[in-house]
């Protein structure tokens, strides 16, 4: 009965590689998000999608490309990984973009780039 | 732009003692305010939220928070801390377009037996 799930939970890879993180929500929500949590626990939004359309794209490198094949999925693809990409990435979802609705977070994906 | 400050990086309290975690925000309009908790290796769980109305908000796990507009604060409190409350606590403010929340840097709570 997992609400927001992410795979993989841990990802260790080398610099220069391309990797993807998958996110799925079974809550029927319209809006999904990607957040990055750095080593100092600072959590910052990266992307937001509503009904498969991009509505927030914070200042992140072009190497990061979100893909939303349907409302229930928002995947994050990262090209040419760099050391600074090491972080925990959280997916979240909410019923709508209306802030009256809380965001539900996934368990996170810990990415380590060596 | 909205922002959140959590002045305390790390707090240690004894089990059974009271707790107050501080949060100050900067926002031009009436903010939406949230407190989330993150246990080790886990995602974030919403403790409580304030949108409007009564400035004292009750949340889950015995937590409450008080919105004080004059002080731009939204401090989290619990009268008696349990060992299971040890975690990282994040204050967040919203919204802007697209329900973009801004998180504080977090306060790590350690509970002494």
Keywords:
heterodimer; A: mainly beta; seven-stranded mixed sheet; four-stranded antiparallel sheet; 55% strand; B: 113 residues; mainly beta; six-stranded mixed sheet; globular
Task: Summarize the SSE layout with pairings.
The complex is a heterodimer of chains A (114) and B (113).
Chain A: E1 4-7, E2 10-13, E3 19-25, E4 31-37, E5 43-50, E6 53-57, E7 64-70, E8 73-78, E9 87-94, E10 104-105, E11 109-113
Parallel strand pairs in A: 2-11
Antiparallel strand pairs in A: 1-3, 3-8, 4-5, 4-9, 5-6, 7-8, 9-10, 9-11
Chain B: E1 3-5, E2 10-14, E3 19-21, E4 24-26, E5 32-38, E6 44-50, E7 56-58, E8 64-68, E9 73-78, E10 87-94, E11 102-103, E12 107-112
Parallel strand pairs in B: 2-12
Antiparallel strand pairs in B: 1-4, 3-9, 5-6, 5-10, 7-8, 8-9, 10-11, 10-12
Task: Describe the protein's architecture and organization.
The complex is a heterodimer of chains A (114) and B (113). With 114 residues, chain A is mainly beta. Chain A is 0% helix and 55% strand. Chain A has strands at 4-7, 10-13, 19-25, 31-37, 43-50, 53-57, 64-70, 73-78, 87-94, 104-105, 109-113. In chain A, a hairpin with a 5-residue loop joins strand 4 and strand 5 (43-50). By secondary structure, chain B is mostly beta strands. Chain B contains no helices and 12 strands. In chain B, a hairpin with a 5-residue loop joins strand 7 (56-58) and strand 8 (64-68). Classes of the chains: A mainly beta (114), B mainly beta (113). Chain A binds chain B through residues 4, 31, 40-45, 48, 50, 55-56, 90, 92, 94, 96-108, and chain B through 32, 34, 36, 41-46, 49, 51, 88, 90, 94-95, 97-103, 105-106, 108.
């Amino acid at each position: 009965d997992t609400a927001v799930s992410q795979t993989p939970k841990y990802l260790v890879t080398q610099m220069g590689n391309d990797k993807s993180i998958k996110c799925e929500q079974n809550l029927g929500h319209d809006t999904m998000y990607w957040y990055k949590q750095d080593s100092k626990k600072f959590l910052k939004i990266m992307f937001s999608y509503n009904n498969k359309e991009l509505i927030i794209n914070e200042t992140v490198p072009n190497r990061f490309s979100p893909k939303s094949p349907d409302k229930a999925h928002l995947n994050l693809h990262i090209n040419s990984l760099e050391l600074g990409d090491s972080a925990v990435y959280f997916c979240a979802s909410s019923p709508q973009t209306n802030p009256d609705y809380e965001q539900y977070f996934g368990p996170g994906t810990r990415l380590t780039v060596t | 732009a909205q922002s959140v400050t959590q002045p305390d990086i790390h707090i240690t309290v004894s089990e059974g003692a009271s707790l107050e975690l501080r949060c100050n925000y900067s926002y031009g309009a009436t903010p939406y305010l949230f407190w989330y908790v993150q246990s080790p290796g886990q995602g974030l769980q919403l403790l409580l939220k304030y949108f409007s109305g009564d400035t004292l908000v009750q949340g889950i796990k015995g937590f409450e928070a008080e919105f004080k507009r004059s002080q731009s604060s939204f401090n989290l409190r619990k009268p008696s801390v349990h060992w299971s409350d040890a975690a990282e606590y994040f204050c967040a403010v919203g919204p802007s377009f697209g329900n973009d929340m801004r998180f504080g840097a977090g306060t790590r709570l350690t509970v002494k037996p």
